[in-house]
Write a structure and sequence with these properties.
mainly alpha; transmembrane helix; Olfactory receptor 4C11; Olfact_rcpt; olfactory receptor activity; Rhopdopsin 7-helix transmembrane proteins
Length: about 300
């Protein structure tokens, strides 16, 4: 397991120190956590059991729902338990494990967004070649590559965290472990470390958002040549995905693209990123996609 000779545990300050507010945090995020798991599980079961949801789009949506559940679960249970705890302690090993999980599933979610955008592009811009390009074997290879890339990114974050020396107070002014709050309590200059974080996590967010923007600009430009009915259907599929992308990348860029600057709302932005978005994703895809709603009725 992860080891550090100078510190064995951290004290998390959480979202609030007010006892009444902590009870509200417990209730609100318990509802959010249960809703996230149930909602995404319902989407997964729905896709697996439905014969009408066998296209690559729903294959990627299956993995998005799975990753959403894991991403939320990497922080929500600890936040809920700590809301009723007098001392919010997390061991050094658990802290490193949480960093690994956060970045593994967060990065995987970004890659799945890109794969879903590519699927939309091929379906709309190259419909005649779609069955040949987006074969099941190709989709499986793309998902495996996404997992490998996410794992490599996550390992890089953990290696960076393991090199941090801690020799002062172990008060982590956050509700979870991530590199930015740990930078505040390390006893070394973090300027270069912040640059590494921006060039890694920040660059992944910005470059991925740029790729997604280009893909959807090309899609929207090509829709001019489609019929009104085809344009309406394509826009319906793209709108739900664009909505989810905006909800995810807004906080992601705020957190990782400029880490040396910290703001009072940092913790709330992280909450919306790790707990709020995974909760909303199944609702957005369920409400906006007629095929998913019909399949759920049958289920």
């Amino acid at each position: 397991m992860w080891e550090n000779s100078n510190v064995t545990q951290f004290i998390l300050l959480g979202l609030t120190q007010n006892p009444l507010s902590q009870k509200m945090v417990f209730l609100i995020f318990l509802i959010f956590s249960v809703g996230t798991v149930l909602g995404n599980t319902l989407v997964i079961v729905n896709i697996e059991s439905s014969r009408t949801l066998g296209s690559p789009m729903y294959y990627f949506l299956f993995y998005l729902s799975f990753v959403d559940s894991c991403y939320s679960t990497s922080t929500a249970p600890k936040l809920i338990v700590d809301a009723l705890s007098a001392k919010k302690l997390i061991s050094y090993s658990e802290c490193m494990t949480q960093i690994f999980a956060l970045h593994l599933f967060g990065c995987m979610e970004i890659f799945v967004f890109i794969l879903m955008a590519v699927d939309h592009y091929v379906a709309i811009c190259k419909p005649l070649h779609y069955p040949r390009i987006m074969r099941r074997q190709v989709c499986l290879i793309l998902i495996v590559l996404a997992w490998i890339g996410s794992f490599m990114h996550s390992i890089a974050q953990v290696i960076l965290a393991l090199r941090l020396p801690f020799c002062g107070p172990n008060l982590n002014d956050h509700y979870c472990c991530d590199l930015q709050p740990l930078f505040k309590i390390t006893c070394t200059d973090t300027y270069l470390l912040n640059l590494l974080l921006v060039t890694n996590s920040g660059a992944i967010c910005l470059v991925s958002l740029t790729i997604l923007t280009i893909i959807y600009n090309v899609i929207l430009h090509s829709l001019r040549n489609h019929s009104a009915e085809g344009r309406k259907k394509a826009l319906s599929n793209c709108t739900s995905h664009i909505t989810v992308v905006v909800l995810f990348f807004g906080p992601c860029i705020f957190i990782y693209a400029n880490p040396p600057n910290t703001f009072p709302m940092d913790k709330m932005v992280t909450v919306s990123h790790t707990i709020g978005t995974p909760f909303l994703d199944p609702l957005i895809y369920t409400l906006r996609k007629a095929e998913v709603k019909n399949a759920m009725r049958n289920l």
